[in-house]
Amino acid sequence: RARQMAALDIDYLAFGAVFASSTKPDAVRADLSLFADAHALGKATVAIGGIRPDNCALVQAAGADFIAVIGGIFDDENPTRALRAYQSAFTKG
């Protein structure tokens, strides 16, 4: 399916849920190996689902270019602090 989508005029491919997610608890899990495979398609990749600052390194190491986070930020009592934690945890260097 990613190959079909990559042939279209799209900016990125999103895969998820990469981890268990309280936002979408019944989402099918996407294996982290998809990110390495998808790079051959020439599109940016986005990881979504169950991503926390403490597992960002796994997603980044797998090859995701970006992360998408909902609950990890908006469910936090201090969303600004949560966002900063994600920014620190997921950086390209």
Mean pLDDT: 92
What is the chain-wise order of helices and strands? HEHEHEHH
The share of residues in extended strands comes to 5-15%
Distance between the amino and carboxyl termini: 30 Å
Q: Unreliable runs, pLDDT <50, ≥5 residues?
A: none
Q: State the share of residues found in helices, binned by percent.
A: 25-40%
Radius of gyration: 13 Å
Record field, number of beta strands: 3
Structural class: alpha/beta
User: What kind of assembly state do the chains in view correspond to?
Assistant: single chain
Cross-sheet strand order for the largest sheet: 1-2-3
- Principal-axis shape equals globular
* Individual helix count: 5
Biggest sheet character? 3 strands, parallel
Overall description:
The structure is a single chain. With 93 residues, the protein is of the alpha/beta class. Helix content is 35%, strand content 14%. It contains five helices and three strands; from the N terminus they run αβαβαβαα. It has helices spanning 2-6, 33-38, 56-62, 71-74, 79-89; strands at residues 12-16, 44-48, 66-68. Strands 1-2-3 form a three-stranded parallel beta sheet. Strand 1, helix 2 and strand 2 form a beta-alpha-beta unit. The termini are far apart. The model has no long low-confidence stretch (mean pLDDT 92).
Which short descriptors sum up this protein?
single chain; 93 residues; alpha/beta; 3-stranded parallel β-sheet; 14% strand
